[in-house]
Write a structure and sequence with these properties.
The complex is a heterodimer. By secondary structure, chain A is an all-beta fold. Chain A has strands spanning 4-7, 10-13, 18-25, 31-37, 44-50, 53-57, 64-70, 73-79, 87-94, 103-104, 108-112. Helix content of chain A is 0%, strand content 57%. Helices cover 0% and strands 52% of the residues of chain B. The chains are: A mainly beta, B mainly beta.
């Protein structure tokens, strides 16, 4: 148990659906991250929040929309996704915005049909 | 492009033997390095980290070695156990904590009982 919980663990959605991924951390950290993990590729940073404020948007398409209502919760809203968006989406947190020693959740395995 | 890479995509070792997983980096300004372990169905889990002012750091059954001259990082696992089977990622911080970690693609370690 890493202290970072992601739901759902698995998600199958059509290209016209709207869904949301949820992440909650119980570590008292101030920074939270969304990463995308595709087969045979390095982890790709998508978004970074520090004290609820977005500090990084790594050229992510607008069909991915993050939301951070407080330092413990992070959402990723999905709409009109493409099949190539199928991947493992990982949430992480860290004590501060130093990008070091990230604590990851178990991820949401997303399949877009 | 990606500055962190791994020499071998897969590694098989006999149970009880020592494992060595290698990683090359290209950014000589990187001053922080970290190893993660990712088991099937789980998110990456922190193993050990090292700063550039050190060349060796030991944890429980794991040792990280840093050779700044040749920009090489390695993870040594002593007395490898079946539970060590996983994908191992190295990552570097190219800018003293002000930029996101750059992850390698990972090496899959398989332990033969």
């Amino acid at each position: 148990e890493t202290g970072v919980t992601q739901t759902p663990r698995h998600l199958v959605m059509g290209m016209t659906n709207k869904k949301s991924l949820k992440c909650e951390q119980h570590l008292g950290h101030n920074a939270m991250y969304w990463y995308k993990q595709s087969a045979k590729k390095p982890l790709e940073l998508m978004f970074v929040y520090n004290f609820k404020e977005q500090t990084e948007n790594n050229s992510v398409p607008s069909r991915f929309s993050p939301e951070c209502p407080n330092s413990s919760h992070l959402f990723l809203h999905l709409h009109t996704l493409q099949p190539e968006d199928s991947a493992l989406y990982l949430c992480a947190s860290s004590p501060g915005l130093d990008y070091e020693k990230l604590f990851f959740g178990s991820g949401t395995q997303l399949s877009v049909l | 492009g990606e500055s962190v890479g791994l020499h071998l995509p897969t590694l098989s070792v006999q149970e009880g033997d020592n494992s060595i997983i290698n990683c090359a980096y290209s950014n000589s300004a990187s001053d922080y390095f970290i190893w993660y372990k990712q088991e099937s169905g789980k998110g990456p889990q922190f193993i050990i980290d090292i700063r550039s002012n050190m060349d060796k750091r030991q944890g429980q059954r794991v040792t990280v070695l840093l050779n700044k001259t040749v920009k090489h990082l390695s993870l040594q696992i002593a007395a490898t156990q079946p539970g060590d089977s996983a994908v191992y990622f190295c990552a570097e911080n190219p800018n003293s904590g002000n930029t996101p970690l750059v992850f390698g693609k990972g090496t899959r370690l398989s332990v033969i009982a």
